[in-house]
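Annual report, structural modelling task.

Input specification for the zinc ion complex:
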Amino acid sequence: MIKIQNEHLEQYAKEHYENLKDKLKDFPTDCKYSLEEVIRAKAEQLDEIAEWGKDKVEVYEFLISKYKNFTTKKDEYDAYDLAKKLNVNVCPYCNINSTYTVIKEDDKKITRPEFDHFYDKAKNPILALSFYNLIPSCHTCNSTLKGREEFSMKSHLNPYSDSLDEVAKFHLQIENSKFYHSTDGFVVKLETEDERAKKNIKIFELDTLYENHKDIVLELIQKEAIYNESYLDELMHQYEGTLFKNREDLQRLISGGYISDDEIGKRPLSKLVKDISDELGLR
Ligand SMILES: [Zn+2]
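The model returned the following structure:
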């Protein structure tokens, strides 16, 4: 699970509130939190609000139907607008599936990520439209996998505030040294000591899903064998300034992915590529 890195999130949360407030005039006046506080609550505050609202499901149920309007292209401001702004193009839960938003020039809305409610909206309707409770994500993670377990900030990592990248690493375990042509000679494990990360890994079936991408790891192993230091020096000597800007650029080309920590959310499988490249000394 990759952290959603965007320096404008606070601004987007404010605009999200500004765009919704007129449609939410029925928001109860006796709520402990103002409408603005509920909509703009930071990820770290969601637990407190969920706790307060959990026995008031009926009172806040109307927010679920407001959320439905938000997702059905009926409103002037809707889920497409939010998705477009957030520009999260790879699912932060799995870092595998693409979550592009496509809006055609004539404003025709074609596709967008699903919005997962980190706190389940049926049990926590008070958070149905809260900005940091809406996680842009892929269909598999949102609709197929996540619903099997109840999420909270105490039990799971939230992509707006936490990063699996910081607490878990893919690790390569070689079982057979003559494996250069096949994926049978090694295993890849996503390892962590963090209890919340363990839960994310389990619910999103990350171990199983990444088993299917061992071919990428095999390619990295093959590249590591081919691109030794002297060959890299040779390539630099020959192509620096023409084919690539500098050594970092060359290494990016070899690993085939973004390699800086703050860019891993931009490309599918980049967490896997980054960790294994680190382990192999490819970056
Ligand atoms: Zn996903």
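Residues 9-148 form one domain.
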